[in-house]
Design goal:
heterodimer, A: 67 residues, alpha+beta, 1 helix, 3 strands, 25% helix, B: Purple Acid Phosphatase, chain A, domain 2, Jelly Rolls, eleven-stranded antiparallel beta sheet, eight-stranded mixed beta sheet
Chain lengths: 67, 729
């Protein structure tokens, strides 16, 4: 590759990078139910799942700035 | 004084020194043979010699009001047993009759009995037979009668082994154990129970035994002869009792048989319908439920059809020394068939002392059978007749005179009732329009629930082959303190509890074993204390598996044996804590026990009567809690991150995880995720190792719910289990 070509490609990358931005998105997961049964007789065991969750989570993604 | 010694001395004195007058009389008995609402025959024997014996009786306890009746009949049974009989008539129905046997020397024990009702008042009857040997059990059964306080007793014959006067004396002395103790108006009384005797094969040496010893005169002809072995009478409008002589099938008694059967067919046709219920007793079963006894086809041909056509409701058979209960059946060709539109229920077969034989010949129409000591306890009411099988032990409380007076159908607490397949501790009969019997509680109805639990696992383990698994061995199950080949051997068994409710209040639990090799040794039953499987249990792997003591037993007869497990809480523990089953181990027994496994024959059965409870302590045994996440912020595509970490805690190893559901929230669009996975973090390192993957899926909608269904349920161990949910972004 000639020098001019390399410089051109580098310029495009710099330009593209300058246009990118990070975005944080919140998410969470909660346990909404479990099915647990007794081995002995197959009866369902009541299991309380209230309050079991991941707490607040974030996922960071990269997007184009003009978007 | 030992009753044998007492009887023997008494009879010996009677034979050898008849001139010495000691006191009045002994061997009190009372029989019914006709119109029991108004008649009864009092029997007794001289203690040595009794001069001018008589009975004084009345209808209250003021002896000044009593009447005197002289002996109406005296019979000699062989050379040594003289019996006096006084027939009372004109008695008021459904009333107490108080009496004393007197002679020149004075009067004996105050006794009382109750006449039969002449209206539809209900009552309790005891029916059994074969008291000829096994005196300990015979006496235990007799004592149980005193606690039950029946209106009367039906005896199916075989009172003694050789029908000798000495044995009969012992039998009559033991019979007094049936009497109940009462204090009435400050005086001690014994309540004596009328009984209705049957001729058994052990009375074949003298076909007039029943009238000579008990004073029955079934045909009311005033003679004591070989014909006094069959008859019928109405106890009340509720019940007509037929007593037949199966021994007339013997050679030389054809004319008696003909006379009896002609009378029976006629009586059934003319008087059978005069009572709401009909019951028959005779000695030999038509179809003994024991392989060592041949079918009595002659009896079937004589009676089965007549019973069915004339709506015999219950038949009590004896002779075999086992216990059985049939469905409602009718004759069909050379056999019976079960019917659901009305038939006759046959019960039996006589083990009131005589050693139990193997109950090993069930028929298609048999509900259940067992090798146990028993008699039947039957509650008779206008629309319902209830049959129970009482086993003989000391567990029963005594019904008081007041309790019986208050409730004619009352039964004492704590009786060791036999639990039959399908019906539990009782079979309840109603009548069809044709007056035949219908079983109302087939399938386990009644006050509570009844189940007969089959084995899921059984095997024995042997010390001398400590790494060998004996599941399915042709030898069945073995227990021995020192087997010549195996050394010490013990057996394990586990029962199918699936679909049982988790919370129960069990009334009783009985383990039925089919004994094939008896032992006089003692054997102990324990709970097993951890999980095991029949396909891999060995002596080595069973080390330390013996848990809590449950019960002991001595398997001294072949066939089905029932062992009361007493501590029925073990079933509740199995349901909630883990179904580990039982261990049967010798109690220093050098004589081993063999019984059939589910592979080698009739496997053990656990018979359980119980009530379902809504809740019970310890029923909620699994909890779930958050674990802190190592990361809360994620970044990058394609990376897999733990987004939910939880701990499930089980306080036993009796739980399994089948499904787990999560619900997403927040602005993130979960439908864009590449994968959502559930891991069982076995090594608890907080890392979702590929080997720990249990289920995976994707969200169908943003902020939707995802349900992980485990391909195979995960068995939660006792303690904590870590689970991880990952998102692959």
């Amino acid at each position: 590759m000639k020098l001019i070509q390399k410089l051109s490609l580098l310029a495009m990358m710099v330009l593209l990078t300058a246009c990118m931005a990070e975005e944080k998105v919140d998410l969470n997961v909660k346990l909404s139910g479990v099915k647990v049964t007794r081995l002995s007789n197959g009866d369902t065991i009541n299991v309380e799942t209230e309050g079991v969750n991941s707490g607040n989570l974030t996922y960071t993604t990269t997007v184009l700035a003009n978007q | 004084m030992n009753t044998i010694v007492r009887a023997f001395i008494s009879i010996a004195l009677l034979v050898s020194i008849p001139s010495i007058a000691l006191s009045a009389t002994q061997f009190n008995r009372l029989v019914w043979d006709a119109d029991p609402a108004h008649q009864a025959t009092i029997g007794f024997s001289p203690l040595v010699i009794s001069i001018n014996p008589y009975v004084k009786y009345g209808f209250d306890t003021n002896e000044d009001n009593w009447s005197r009746v002289w002996v109406t009949d005296t019979q000699h049974f062989q050379v040594g047993l003289m019996s006096h009989f006084v027939r009372l008539s004109g008695l008021p129905a459904n009333s107490p009759v108080y009496y004393r046997v007197c002679d020149l020397m004075g009067c004996g024990q105050r006794l009382w009995f109750k006449t039969a009702p002449e209206d539809n008042s209900p009552f309790v009857v005891v029916a059994g037979g074969d008291t000829r040997t096994g005196l300990w059990n015979r006496r235990a059964g007799n004592r149980l009668i005193s606690k039950i306080r029946p209106l009367f007793i039906m005896h199916g014959g075989d009172y003694t082994n050789l029908n000798t006067f000495v044995e009969m004396g012992v039998y009559l002395a033991d019979w007094e154990l049936t009497f109940s103790d009462d204090v009435i108006n400050g005086e001690s009384y014994k309540r004596i129970y009328p009984f209705v005797p049957t001729h058994g094969n052990h009375e074949d040496s003298d076909y007039s035994t029943l009238c000579k010893v008990f004073g029955v005169d079934y045909n009311q002809d005033g003679n004591c002869d070989n014909s006094d072995t069959f008859g019928a009478f109405n106890v009340s409008p509720l019940l007509r009792v037929y007593t037949l002589n199966s021994q007339y099938k013997n050679s030389g008694y054809a004319s008696y048989a003909t006379a009896m059967n002609e009378w029976l067919y006629s009586d059934l046709a003319t008087h059978g319908g005069s009572a709401a219920w009909r019951m028959a007793q005779y000695h030999k079963p038509m179809f003994p439920h024991y392989t060592g006894k041949s079918d009595n086809k002659e009896l079937f041909d004589w009676w089965a059809d007549a019973f069915y056509r004339h709506s015999m409701n219950v038949v009590v058979e004896s002779d075999t020394h086992i216990n059985k209960l049939t469905r409602a059946i009718r004759p069909d060709g050379d056999d019976f068939v079960a019917v659901d539109d009305g038939g006759t229920v046959y019960v039996g077969e006589g083990s009131w002392g005589a050693p139990s034989r193997s109950a090993n010949k069930p028929k298609d129409w048999t509900i259940d059978l067992a090798s146990i000591q028993q008699f039947k306890v039957i509650q008779v009411a206008e629309d319902e007749l209830t049959v129970r099988t009482a086993q003989f032990d000391n567990s029963a409380s005594s019904l008081s005179r007041e309790a019986r007076e208050a409730d004619a159908l009352a039964l004492p607490e704590g009786v060791n009732w036999w639990l039959a397949n399908e019906v539990g501790d009782k079979v309840i009969l109603s009548r069809t329009a044709e007056q035949l019997s219908l079983i109302e509680n087939g399938g386990g109805a009644g006050d509570g629930l009844f189940v007969s639990l089959a084995l899921t696992d059984d095997a024995f383990v042997a010390k001398n082959e400590s790494d060998r698994n004996f599941d399915g061995s042709s030898e069945g199950l073995l227990v021995d303190g020192l087997d010549i080949n195996y050394g010490q051997v013990f057996s394990l068994m586990k029962f199918d509890l699936m679909n049982m409710p988790s919370c129960i209040d069990s009334d009783s639990a009985k383990l039925a074993l089919n004994i094939t090799n008896t032992s006089l040794g003692s054997f102990d039953i324990f709970t097993a204390n951890r999980r095991w499987q029949e396909e891999n249990i060995t002596w080595d792997s069973a080390s330390g598996i013996v848990g809590d003591y449950v019960a002991s037993f001595t398997p001294n007869s072949d066939g089905m044996m029932e062992i009361d497990l007493g501590s029925t809480g073990i079933i509740q523990d199995w349901l909630l804590q883990g179904n580990y089953g039982l261990v049967i181990r010798d109690h220093h027994a050098l004589d081993g026990l063999d019984f059939t496994s589910k592979e080698s024959g009739n496997g053990a059965v656990l018979k359980l009567a119980f009530d379902e409870q809504e809740t019970c302590e310890g029923s909620d045994t699994v909890e779930v809690a958050n674990q802190a996440l190592e990361k809360q912020n994620f970044k990058g595509e394609g990376v897999k991150e733990v987004v939910l970490a939880i701990t499930m805690t089980s306080d036993n190893d009796n739980a399994r995880l089948e499904e787990l559901a999560i619900t997403a929230g927040g602005d993130f669009d979960e439908t864009q995720l590449m994968a959502v996975e559930l891991y069982i973090d076995e090594n608890k390192d907080g890392v979702a190792d590929p080997a720990e993957l249990s289920a995976s899926g994707t969200y169908a909608t943003d902020n939707g719910e995802l349900v992980f269904v485990l391909d195979s349920p995960y068995y939660l161990p006792e303690g904590d289990t870590s689970l991880l949910v990952t998102y692959q972004f």
